[in-house]
Hints:
Blueprint: E1 4-8, H1 14-24, E2 28-33, H2 36-45, E3 49-53, H3 62-73, E4 78-81, H4 96-121, E5 127-134, H5 145-165, E6 170-177, E7 180-181, H6 184-189, E8 198-199, H7 201-211, E9 222-225
Parallel strand pairs: 1-2, 1-4, 2-3, 4-5, 5-6, 6-9, 7-8
Helix pairs in contact: 1-7, 3-4, 4-5
Amino acid sequence: MTQVCAIVGMGPGNGRALAQRFTGEGWQVAMLSRNEARLKQYESEIRGTHAYPWDAADGEDAGAVFERIREELGAISVLIYNAGAGVFKRFDEATLAEFEQVWRVNCLGLAAAAQAVVPQLREHEQASLIITGASAALRGRAGTAPFASAKAAQRSLAQSLARQLGPENIHVAHVVIDGVIDMPRTREAMPGKDDDFFLDAGAIADSIWFLAHQQRSAWTFELDLRPYAEQW
């Protein structure tokens, strides 16, 4: 039976590493992002991946895109919500439009994806819905008002999903990613930082793979991932 993982939010860090981790285990991976050109590039580079353009901030067509995945690949058993957007400003410096846009990507998109995919998850004996969050979900700092409020809302939604879906054998987990992902652009932006400063995307993908395969009697809801040098 074909095993299908859907990843919402594809980029050169966590998204790419997650696609490689799951396809490396023989899974078919549906990649969702608004950047169609990037999706097509990954589709040509990573065997077992499939491009499905979708803007997480606009949840109206979620049902159609996830139904297409079902028809072409099979019912999804793991959904990873990795889409994110951040505006890092003080509350009185950010516009209301910026508050709304960050919330739409981090929270509304998750709600839309969950509503569309949970019927597919229910078809499996065990399934998983994993959300990549941030330490901002746990603390609102003066200069992160739009981002922190959206991530806190996302975390609360994840808790609601976990409590509702756990009895149906659907494991919902929230991953707090605390730090800077090791990528060429982050290295270029922070040339003086040691290797230990950065988070390795492959290691993050390994942790999410583990969450997706936990035994039900000892599920993790929240997992913190950070390098030892990170301030927390």
